[in-house]
Amino acid sequence: MKLFAVDEPSLGSASVARVEAPGPVFVGKGGVDLICGSCEHVVARGLESASQVANIVMECTNCGGLSSTRI
Ligand SMILES: [Zn+2]
User: Fold this and answer.
1) How many A from CA of 69 to the centre of ligand 1?
2) How much is the pTM?
3) 42 CA to centre of ligand 1 in angstroms
C-alpha cells in the first residue's frame, strides 16, 4: 500500500524510523509492502499488517521523504 507523505512530526508525537543503509526500514515475512508517499521506493517489506507501523513515521532511504500510514 502507498503511504502518505508527512512532515517531520513534532517532538514526541511519533517515532521516526531511519536506516543508514539503502533498503526497506522494515523487512518481515508478511504480505504487506509499504511504498514511500513521495516516490515509489519500498520503505517496509513483508509486514503482517500496516497497523504494525500505525504510529511510526518512516524515512525513505531513496528520496529522504517522511511517510506514515496515518491520514
Ligand atoms: Zn521516497
Assistant:
1) 14
2) 0.76
3) 8
Q: CA neighbours within 13 Å on the CB side: how many for 55?
A: 5
Q: pLDDT tens, 39-70?
A: 999 999 999 998 888 878 888 989 999 998 87
CA 20 to centroid of ligand 1, rounded, Å: 14
Centre of ligand 1 from the C-alpha of residue 5, in Å? 9
Is residue 8 exposed (0-12), middle (13-18) or buried (19+ Cβ within 10 Å)? exposed
In 3D space, the residue among 54, 58, 2, 48 whose CA is nearest the CA of residue 28 turns out to be 48
